[in-house]
Design brief:
The chain is of the alpha/beta class. Helix content is 44%, strand content 12%. The chain folds into two domains: 178 residues, NAD(P)-binding Rossmann-like Domain (Rossmann fold); 123 residues, Orthogonal Bundle (N-(1-d-carboxylethyl)-l-norvaline Dehydrogenase, domain 2), CATH 1.10.1040. Strands 3-2-1-4-5-6-7-8 form an eight-stranded mixed sheet. α5 links the parallel β4 and β5. α7 crosses α9, α7 crosses α11 and α10 packs antiparallel against α11. Bound molecules: nicotinamide-adenine-dinucleotide.
Amino acid sequence: MSKSFNKVTLLGGGVLGGQIAWHSAFRGKQVVVYDAFAEGLEKCKQAHQTYSGIYAKDLNASEEELKLTFERLSYSGDLKDAVHGADIIIECVPENPDIKIKLYDDLSPLLSPQVILATNSSSLLPSQFSEHVKYPENYCALHFANLVWALNIAEIMAHKGTSKETLVNITRFAIEIGMVPIPVQKERNGYVCNSLLIPIIHTALTLLNTGVTTPDVLDRTYMIMNRGTSMGPCGIMDIVGFKTVYDINQYWGEVNQDEQMLSNADYVKKNFIDKGILGLQTGQGFYSYPDPMYASPDFLEVPDVSKAKEIASLAVL
Ligand SMILES: NC(=O)c1ccc[n+]([C@@H]2O[C@H](COP(=O)([O-])OP(=O)(O)OC[C@H]3O[C@@H](n4cnc5c(N)ncnc54)[C@H](O)[C@@H]3O)[C@@H](O)[C@H]2O)c1
């Protein structure tokens, strides 16, 4: 029998923890956000004000729904208080194994056998941490995408000791908060989503870095070949943020001794990060926000013939 989870605790109120907390509360869950730093909690509260505006605009959320969402949210700097009475705890602390292990060690004595614990880690595997959690059968990964309200997938990935009951319950929770569950049948860094996305981003960066094409031409090509999609790889990188794009390329470039990845990391650093351009969060990435060029109605149209000279100049060797 699957069980409905109504009390949710988020560990870490940063970008993803803040989004999952807000979205779960919007979908009717009682949510506590725990963060080890007062600044983290403060930023999370500010982000929730921002999400309130986005949900009103993009999801047509009513004033009453937003009011109830705020009422269902609370914030705590005390781990014991934050997890007291929780049905499900979702860990969203930084992508650093030492930080996660220390937190799991502190958390374990506070857990009861009924509580489900999930990690939102993007690239670390649940089996790396299962021996640090008190009830490994209740532990797995539940991985959300940045902008949870729009990119509503939740990837579910077990380690060998995760129970079937846990997987059913966590899948049910994902559905209850409006996510499309994506079951992953083997542990894999990057799950399904990032395993698809990272090679696309890598190729896009290589095409830009080696001067083969420009961001708008690249995205236009992708969007015509994938008719109906709302953005291309450069638009996606703006959402992911250039710091993360840099980190992924630098880390895997070093691990795999991949010269092209390291060069792509350098390209992102020099052209964007060093200039304070970080993507959507700073209003400027490959595109300017809130009205990026790729969202304009004529982005995929056949151009006027008067543009031929300008377009051809991009094909001169
Ligand atoms: N940012 C993304 O696009 C994204 C997408 C999917 C998954 N994730 C994953 O989610 C997790 C969090 O990423 P993020 O981008 O939200 O990070 P973030 O840096 O925005 O937030 C991390 C938060 O954790 C807090 N924190 C640090 N140490 C802590 C501790 N010991 N206990 C409690 N709180 C602590 C920080 O104060 C901060 O508020 C990572 O595992 C990451 O891989 C991130």
